[in-house]
Amino acid sequence: MKNSIVLIIISLFLLITGCKKNYILNEKQHILFQYDYVNYSVRYNHEGFYVDDEGEIMYYSNPESWNSLSNDYNITEVKLADNLSKCIVSDVKTDKKDLIKFSSYIDNLASSKITARKNVGSDAGMGIFICYNYDEQNGIYKGTLIKMEGDVTCENLNFYSKKVTLWLTDLNNRISVK
Q1: 135-149 b/e (C-beta count within 10 Å ≥ 16 → b)
Q2: Cα dist. 13→1, 6, 19, 68 in Å?
Q3: What is the pLDDT of residues 118-143, one digit of tens each?
Q4: So where are the chain's domains?
Q5: Which of the given ranges, 13-22, 24-33, 35-44, 111-120, has the highest pLDDT on average?
Q6: CA dist 124 → 10, 33, 52, 96, 152 (Å)
Q7: Does residue 49 sit in helix, strand or coil?
Q8: Model pTM score
Q9: How far is CA 77 from CA 30, 57, 62, 165, in A?
Q10: Which of 142, 131, 143, 140 minimizes the C-alpha distance to 103?
């Protein structure tokens, strides 16, 4: 009986103090997600948005002198800061609960495999959903592909990829409506 009471007290203590993992992967990491769409056909179109650690959504539409991601979806902190200076803070903001929930999936997504790329069309452009881990030592935001859609498709095989993609798509639709 005494052991049961001790276990209950310890469990309550852990529950109250919050043993939940912090959704910010690194205290200096400010950008968590990005959606980027580019279409070079007929009329050039480049738009998308970033989601930061406060739930702010910064969008861009046909920015000049944009710093593209490397082939492995990484971007230096300096280049990312330059891109952010070309963004507009949206009046759409993500709910803190959603931000915590979806950010907690980043480590799982980063450790998962990606399907092979498939060419499925042309002239549809390319949309990519990305999450980031910040490498403070090297000043690099390491991107992980969640999903690619459009002319070429591929997807992260992690269970959470569809949930994160739907959430980011909803944010994109909310920004586009305004």
Answers
A1: eeeeebbbbbbbbbb
A2: 19, 11, 9, 47
A3: 999 888 899 999 999 999 999 999 99
A4: 21-177
A5: 111-120
A6: 56, 23, 28, 33, 9
A7: strand
A8: 0.84
A9: 10, 18, 21, 24
A10: 131
Residues of the chain with pLDDT > 90, as a percent, come to: 76
pLDDT score, position 130? 98
DSSP SS3 for 161: helix
What six digits make up the tokens of 27? Answer: 């205290």
- The residue with tokens 């800061």 is 81
Tokens of 30: 């400010």
Q: What is the pLDDT of residues 39-92, one digit of tens each?
A: 988 678 999 999 999 999 999 999 999 999 999 999 999 999 999 999 999 999
Encoding tokens for residue 110? 């980063």
CA 76/CA 94 separation, integer angstroms: 25
DSSP string, 69-92: PPTTS-EEHHHHHHHHTT-EEEEE
Q: 5 pLDDT exceeds 50? A: no
User: What 3-state class would DSSP assign to 38?
Assistant: strand
- Which helix (DSSP H) or strand (DSSP E) does residue 34 occupy? strand 31-39
